[in-house]
Amino acid sequence: GAVVSQHPSRVICKSGTSVKIECRSLDFQATTMFWYRQFPKKSLMLMATSNEGSKATYEQGVEKDKFLINHASLTLSTLTVTSAHPEDSSFYICSAQERGGIDTQYFGPGTRLTVL
Amino acid sequence: AQKITQTQPGMFVQEKEAVTLDCTYDTSDQSYGLFWYKQPSSGEMIFLIYQGSYDEQNATEGRYSLNFQKARKSANLVISASQLGDSAMYFCAMREGGAGGTSYGKLTFGQGTILTVHP
Questions:
Q1: Does the pLDDT of residue A6 top 60, yes or no?
Q2: Cα(A103)–Cα(A90) distance, integer angstroms
Q3: Which end of chain B has a smaller Cβ tally under 10 Å, C or N?
């Protein structure tokens, strides 16, 4: 299957700082990428849909000013958690949709964010 | 109402035995896709198998097969000859609508089932 990378895999930051997470499709172009959040032993919750060259579409209840998404190219989307708080601590996973065939979403390995 | 329901929080199976993980879904769309993903303790989500709503045959991928019963709106995952490495969380997910729709691509996930394979 297609490969999606995510960086960093783990990050610890202080309250009030901003953290940027990168999601890259390594061997295919992805016009659409998705950002999810997951709490321990829980399901994935879609935060936003990232479209290359246009604004992201956020799910209800997700603060767009807090979770900034930029999809600058067909292989890169970034999620920036601004003014992080301890309640933002979570596992963040991105996915990239490979168009053609069944349009499968391939997931990155995830980023564990801890806000102190 | 839940769009994707996985009623088994945890399942246990003996190594080399087969196991079925349940998934039911709810949609009014005629065109939709059903996916199963495996999430080991490392956290990555691994794509296993896909079933399209118009596919007449059940999908199979190696030891994985999908028991698709459209009228009952169920898409159970069957893992044959379980291996210790199959121990993980398994998610069923649905993508509604056809390509080109405004919300195309969004996946809705079930609650997940933790599978433990015993030696």
A1: yes
A2: 27
A3: N
**Distance between first and last Cα of chain A:** 36
Inter-chain contact B109–A42, Cβ cutoff 8 Å?
no
DSSP A78: E
> What DSSP state is assigned to residue B58?
P
Comparing CB atoms, the residue among B45, B52, B110 nearest residue A107 is B45
Percent of chain B with pLDDT over 90: 85
- Per the CB < 8 Å rule, is A110 touching B43? yes
Do the Cβ atoms of A97 and B105 come within 8 Å?
yes
pLDDT-wise least confident of A100-109, B40-49, B87-96: A100-109
Q: Do A102 and B33 touch (CB under 8 A)?
A: yes
Q: Look at strands A10-13 and A111-115 and give their pairing.
A: parallel
Range A32-51 average pLDDT: 92
φ, ψ of residue A56 to 5 degrees: the values are -75, 155
What whole-number distance in Å separates Cα of residue A83 and Cα of residue A79?
13
Q: Which two tokens stand for residue B3?
A: 């769009």
**Chain B residues touching A52 at Cβ < 8 A:** none
